[in-house]
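fwd from M.: "can u put these together and see what the complex looks like"

so here's what she sent:
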Amino acid sequence: MSEDLNNNKTIQAQSSETISGGGSGISPDIDYVRPAEIPEQDLYHGHSFITKWVFCQDAKVIGIQYFLLATFTGIIGLILSWLMRLQLGFPGLAGFMTAEHYYQFVTMHGMIMVVYFLTALFLGGFGNYLIPLMVGARDMVFPYLNMVSFWSFFVAVGVLLASFFVPGGPTGAGWTLYPPQTILEGTPGHGMGILLMCISLILFVAGFTMGGLNYLITVLQARTRGMTLMRMPLTVWGIFTATVLAMLAFPALLVGALMMTLDNILGTSFFMPTILKAGEVLEYGGGSPILFQHLFWFFGHPEVYIVALPAFGIISDLISVHSRKNIFGYRMMVWAIVGIGALSFFVWAHHMYVSGMNPWFGFFFATTTLIIAVPTAMKVYNWILTLWRGNIRMNVVMLWCLGFIVTFVNGGITGIFLGNVTVDVPLSDTYFVIAHFHMVMGIAPLMVIMGAVYHWFPLVSGKFLDEKLGKWHFWLTFLGAYSIYFPMHYLGFIGVPRRYFEMYDSPYMTSAVGMNEFISLAAFIVGAAQFILIYNIVKTLKIGKPAGHNPWKANSLEWLTPTVPPEHGNWGERLPVVHRWPYDFSVPGVKEDFVTQTTAPSEIAGSKVEKT
Amino acid sequence: MHAGIIFFLVILGSVLFHIFTPWYWTDVASNWGGMDDTITLTFWVGGGVFVAVCLFMVYCVFKFSYKEDRKAEYKPEDKKLERILTWATTLGVAALLAPGLIIWNQFISVPKNAIEIDVMAWQWGWQYRLPGEDGKLGTTQVTNINDNNPFGINLDDPYGKDDVMIQTDVINLENNRPVKILLRSVDVLHNWYVPQFRAKMDAVPGIVTYYWFEPNKTGEYEVLCAEYCGVGHYAMRGGVLVQDNQDYENWLQEQETFSELMAKQKLLETGETKLAKK
C-alpha cells in the first residue's frame, strides 16, 4: 500500500496539469477532479402514464419517441421506394401508377428519408438518448423544451403525411423543390401539396431548433466533473458538431420554404421570373430561381454532414469497443469532425455546377469540395487503423461497422467524381448521382444506425438482440443494398437521367432493362429484410437473453449507470466522476482489457497510462 | 463461412464487374473526350484507394479476430503515420483536381468561331434558332412570344430579322464546327443534354445560360431533358443530326427565316382581310 502511494507521488510530479492547475486549496491527490461549478438541476418526475410516456420530459424517453416516429416515417419512405422500383423495373405492372404518382413518391421518399428519418433519428433519437448519459448529466438542460421539440416533430410529420390526402396529393416537385415548377401547374401537388410540405418543414425546423439548443448547451454546460471536451466519446463530438451545423443551416431552408410559400399563396416573386404558361404571361416577374437553389443547398450540403457526422462519431465508438482497442488518432478524429463541419459550409454550390450559375464558381467549389476529402479520408484511415492489431469481436455490431466502411469508402470515392467539376458535367442529373448519394448518405448511415441499434439495445432494454437473426439481417441488407447501388453507377455512365418515369425507349438504354429488373428485385428483398429487425426486437423484448451491466465491456459513461436500463435522472444518488478518455482498451499493465472512464488512476496504479 | 471471405468476394466482385461491365459510357461524339479521361483517372486513383482500404480491412478481420488470450495493441496516436497519410491524400486529391480544373477552364471558354444556337425550352418541348447571314442572334423577350413570333424576338432588333427558325425538336449541326448552346426557358428549369456530347447545362427562366462543344461524329443523337421539369419531364426528348458541311448547308437553305415567316403571316392576314371584304 505504501509503495503504491509512493508511485503515485512520482507521477504527480511529472504531470504538468497538476503543477499548473495546483493552487494552494487543491489536494495533491492523483485522483483529484475539480469540484462541480453549478448545482445539480431539478428534474420533473412524471407520475402518470401521460407524463411518463407521452408528454415526457426524460431525454431517454424522448429519444425513443423520436426513434420510433422517425422509423415509422422511414418505413413509409421505404414503401414509397418499393413503388418507385416497381415502376422502374417492371413498368406497367402496377396499373394505377401514373407519372404524377411516380413523381409524388420520388419527392416524398427523398424528403422523408433525408429529413424526417435520418436527421430526426440521429439527432433526435441517438442525440437525446446518448448525450446526457455519455457526458454524465442527469438530463438535457431544458427538459420541457425538449418535450416540445418532439411534439413539434410529431405535428410536422402529421402535416407531411396529411398532404397525401389533400386535393392534388402531395407535392411531386422532387425533394429539392426547385421553383418555378414546384408551384406551377404541370407539377403534381402544386397547390395544397407544396403548401403543406413547406409548413411541415417550417415546423420541423422550429422543433429541431428547440432540441438542438438543448444538445449544444447540455454538451457545453452540463458535463460531469472531469469530463473535459477532449474526453468526450466521438459519438458526442459528432452529434454536437452536427447540431452546430443544423443550427446554422436549417434557417436557410426555413427562409427558402417561407419565401416559396409567399410566392405560392400571395403571388410574390422571390423565385419567380416572367413566365409564359399555355400562351399566357403569368403575374410574376423579376425573381431568381437560382436564388432558391443557393438557399436550398446552403442548407442541403451541411445537411449531408448533419447526417454523416453523428454516424462518423457512433461508428468510431462501435469500432473501438468491439476491436478492444483505442480509437486511433482521437485528436485527429475530433479535429476532422470539426474541420469537416466548418468546410461543409463552403461547398454547397457543387450541387449546382450545371445549374446556370456563373461558371467561375466551379473553380472555387471544386477546390473546397476536394479539400473536404482529406479530413474525411483521414477518418477512414483511422477506422481501419483501429482494427489493425486490435482484438476484433466478429459480432453483428462489428459486421455493420465493416459494412459501413465498405459502403462509405465506395460512396466517398464517387463523391470525388461528382465534386470535381469537370467530371460532374456528364454525370450530374444521371443515375450515377442517385447511386452515389444512396451509397454514402443512405446505406452507410443506415449501417451505422443498425450497428448502433444492436450495440445499445442491451442498454435501452436490458436484453441482447438475437445474433443469428442479426446476421441474416446484416447480410441481406449489406449484400442487397450493395448490389442495388453498385451497378446503378453504370446506368449513370450510359447517361440514363434521373427522375424519369419511363426511360427505355431510347436506343442506347435498352441494354439496361435487365439491370433495372435486378435492382428492383434486390430493393424488394432489402426492404423486406428490415422487418427481420422489427421481429428481432419484438422477440427479444419477450424472451431475450438478459444483458446485465456493461455487457460489451465498454468504457463510456452510458454503460455505468446504477440501473439497466437507466432510470430517470440516470445516475442515482451521485453523479459519476470522470478520470480518463473513453478509449482505454487493452491498457498494458491492467488485467481487464478495458478501463472505464470512472476508474480513478490509483485503481490501476502501475499500468502504462494511469491518467489520460 | 468467415465474414472476411464474403467481404473479400464483394471487393473482388466490384473489380470484376468494372472490368467486364457491358454497361458503360457511349462513344464520345464531341471534343469532350477529356472529361472521359478525367473520369478514367479518377477511377484508377479512387478505385485503387477503395480496393486498398477494403483489402486492408479484410486482412485485419482475418488476422486480428478475437482471441481470449490476446491483447490489442495500445497506441493512441502515431504522428508520423498520420502525417504521411495526410500528405499522400492531399497529393492524390490535388492530382485529381488539377486536370478537372484545366478542362473546366476549357469548358467555360467558348472559341471565337463557335456558332451560337438559341435553344428555347418549355413544358415540354424544344425549338431552336440559328443566326442568319449577319452571324448574330436577335434579342428576345418572353412577353413577345405569340403565334406570329414563336421565339419572342424583339421586332426593333435588326439582328433578329434574318434569324433561322427551327420549330421542331430536332436540330442539325455541322460536324467539326464548335457550337455555343444558348439556353433559355419560358417556364421552368430544363436541361438540354445529349449523353454522347457529355456536356449539359440547365435552362433557367429569366436568364440565358450557355455551354459549348464541337461535335465530331456524324449521326443522329437523342436529346434528353436532364433537369426535372414536371410530369412531362421523362417525355421531353429532342434530337440532333450531326452532318457533314455539304449536307448541313443544304439543310440550312431549306429553313425559314424570321422575315420570311413575318412576310408569310402578312400575306395570310391580307388574304384574310381581302376575303372578309368580299
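replying to her w this: Chain B has a mean pLDDT of 91.
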